[in-house]
Design brief:
Strand content: 5-15%
Strand order of the largest sheet: 1-2-3-4-5-6-7-8
Structural class: alpha/beta
CATH topology: TIM Barrel
Oligomer: single chain
Radius of gyration: 17 Å
Length: 267
């Protein structure tokens, strides 16, 4: 079995996790920019983080035969400080052309505030300028449905980003249809307790099909599992899904979306 882990925060994981993922069949990962486990105090902290994502983390992954790709942004959890956000966004062009960068992400909303929305709009404009892919974070702490609708409105208002180049991640039962109906890709994030369990994710796929859907572990600082994708593959087999269906979901779908970036080269 082979798979792509399209959303995982490996800077928060130990090297043993790379080994376990490689043994399980992982051939590539994409790592969105996110929270460092604490709120950073200045743009310099993000600069170091971007250097880590573009220069050092790919070397750690390569030791296990895994190709590492990344996304750049200031994440919604730290987007309340507008001056910090402007400083971070202004430095992203210095990194955007690096060979392992796929686009802008994960951007979006955390608590659905006005400042978060302003920062989302700034980063959508950056993605439009450089014609990159976009990875969207939908909120957990506040109303996910409201946040998803606000995000889609912001993308539409921008008017320069094709829906097929946007993945709206952390979708759940009440938001996945909204994303798909608007022409976006939908991501299902597999967490042991919050977000979406493997059973719920498979239920969603059995209802909505395989078109424009990916699954990811998004493993980070919290209670999460770097092997979430292969565990989902196992449960799909137990439910009677074919190897072709499993391969489509965990390899072909993320490959199709991510290959819209010229930097994504796996096979």
């Amino acid at each position: 079995m082979r798979y792509i882990e399209p959303h995982i925060h490996m800077v928060s994981r130990v090297t043993d996790d790379y080994q376990k993922m490689a043994v399980s069949g992982c051939v590539a990962i994409s790592e969105p920019s996110f929270w460092a486990g604490f709120d950073r105090c200045s743009a310099d902290g993000f600069k170091d983080y971007f250097i880590q994502l573009t220069q050092y983390e790919p070397k750690r992954a390569a030791r296990y035969g895994i190709k590492h790709f990344c996304w750049l942004c200031i994440n919604p959890k730290e987007a309340e400080n507008l001056q910090l956000a402007r400083d971070v966004v202004s430095m992203i062009p210095n990194f955007i052309n690096h060979q392992n960068v796929l686009g802008i992400g994960e951007i979006g909303l955390n608590r659905n505030t006005k400042n978060e929305l302003k920062v989302l709009e700034m980063q959508l404009e950056l993605a439009a300028k450089y014609q990159t892919l976009v990875l969207v974070h939908t909120p957990h702490l506040e109303d996910k449905l409201k946040g998803t609708r606000l995000t889609i409105d912001a993308i539409k208002n921008n008017g320069k980003i094709p829906p097929h180049k946007v993945i709206i991640d952390h979708c759940e039962e009440h938001t996945v249809k909204l994303a798909l109906d608007e022409g976006y890709w939908a991501g299902l994030t597999l967490y042991p307790q919050t977000k979406c369990t493997t059973a719920r994710a498979i239920d969603i796929i059995e209802i909505y099909g395989f078109e424009r859907i990916w699954v990811n572990g998004a493993a980070d600082w919290g209670n999460s599992l770097p092997l979430a994708v292969p565990y989902l593959a196992l449960e799909m087999r137990q439910r009677g899904h074919s190897e072709e269906e499993i391969d489509r979901l965990i390899f072909q779908n993320p490959y199709k979306f991510l290959s819209q970036s010229p930097n994504f080269k796996v096979i």
